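Journal club prep, notes for RB
We'll compare a predicted complex against what the paper describes. Inputs for the magnesium ion case:
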Amino acid sequence: MEILRKSRHEAQAAVLDDYPSTCASFSWEEARGWLDGLPDGGGLNIAHEAVDRHAAGEAGERIAIRWLGKSGTRREIRYRELAELSSRFANVLETLGMARGAGVFLLAGRIPELYLAVLGALKQGAVVTPLFSAFGPEPIATRMTLGEGRVLVTTTSLYRRKVAPIRDRLPSLEHVLVVRDDDFEALPEGTRELAPLLEAAASDYTIPATDPETPALLHFTSGTTGKPKGALHVHQAVVAHHATARFALDLRADDVFWCTADPGWVTGTSYGIIAPLSLGATLVIDEAEFDAERWYQILEREAVSVWYTAPTAVRMMMKGGSARARAGNYPALRFIASVGEPLNPQAVHWGMEAFGLPIHDNWWQTETGGIMIANFASMDIRPGAMGKPLPGIEAAVLRRLPDGGVAPVEHVDDEGELALRVGWPSMFRTYLHEEERYRRCFVGDWYLTGDLARRDHDGYFWFVGRADDMIKSAGHLIGPFEVESALMEHPAVAEVGVIGKPDPVIGEIVKAFVALKPGHEPDEALRRELLGFARKRLGPAVAPKEIDIQPSLPRTRSGKIMRRLLKARELGLPEGDISTLETPR
Ligand code: ATP
Ligand code: MG
């Protein structure tokens, strides 16, 4: 079994140097003690832990956010200033008469106002939902309806294009606060400008007592397997955000941390806002969309020390080879992690080639609110494995029993459903307005994740596929990830999505959709070569029988290949909910 050497992690929280004993002694109560809590036993509030507790004295002078605008502008926001700005926003909500628990939605690019509004709304006790700014009117309408949004923070141009056409379908929406980003002098009808409201509001705000179980964030899932679900999280989730960032990202107060995810996706909030701030680190925020050259420059110029990204971004950078990466100089960079999709072993190796650091895969979901399984800094990583459960997390590979119960799979390395024992702080509390669906996720005190995995005899978990994506071919159960990873090893391949295509004889055949790296011709010769290549690596039972070369593959906005869409298109079926689809057809 291949094992890569550890990352540079000079001062990894000593707790993890001995993983088994940390797991044995760790408790979530202990982690809660790493945070402050509101004064006078006032409970626990995410924004207090993220911002206010760092705002006083010298700590307040540290940079909380280093914002890089699209057009080259920069803005640095110190903790003290972020505390004031978010307090102003909380006061704005009070002035608008918002009761605790009101739905506050954000629809904006990664502009500073988005961050101060999220934090301010959390202070005030609102339930916050950041949406992807690239969403069209329909996905905005369905999500705002489900979450009963009463306040929307957006920009003038986004409002005009996307919200005005659906405004009359949003009866619960009372206030639209806009940031100007176009040249019209008049504000869109029915909106108010945010800047003067902030200006007029007081810069101090006393966070009301917040029970740790108070709803805080409503996050929609990526919609990879179907209609997105609204997962509701509570304030005590911050305990998990904070602890898991220490454990799985090796994050500390002196880090410059860059999480490339947009807050419209749970990663961009749990780790793109809350966790790094709760640790007192400096958060790099890039307003621009992905651009490989720009990203290398950010890593280099901003002296990023911990970088959290996703397989889709890594694959896009890999397309250009590793020479560009090696030409850069990243003395500060000491830890790279990835989440969202399986990280092909190829990508882990590319990290070594490009940065001299492996990429540490970790696994979690919108529902879990925080990282659950990871290749820790302090352990040898196994390319292709998701790692081991974090302290405080009990994970298991289960099989379903005929009586509706579950039991562990019989042998090490057997595939089964990945399950987590309930009880960690960032666990979702419901799928909003879908109670029944929520209940169906549990058997006894196990939460069943819908993903299939196996555990090796050293305790590493390996992703096999989503339960929905498994392929049954001639009596074999084939996980798409294995096939995709094998094809990724071919030098011409940039991306792969594998599906099962119904076949009258063998049930399903394995079909792969492939996108190529620049400079490769999508011709018949290459197609045949890929078929042969996969066959040699995987054997005839598992290798794809058909390969289709496409210019690009359909992806969710959080960067996941949408296999269900590849399948629907292949079979000429309705496309289903494609509200989160990124690549235009
Ligand atoms: P939906 O639930 O709407 O279909 P989704 O499951 O993609 O969408 P997210 O909550 O954003 O929504 O993604 C979580 C899922 O992403 C996991 O259940 C898993 O399938 C996949 N995933 C995340 N990290 C990893 C990883 N490191 N390796 C493999 N798969 C991963
Ligand atoms: Mg899911």
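Talking point for the session: The chain has a mean pLDDT of 94.
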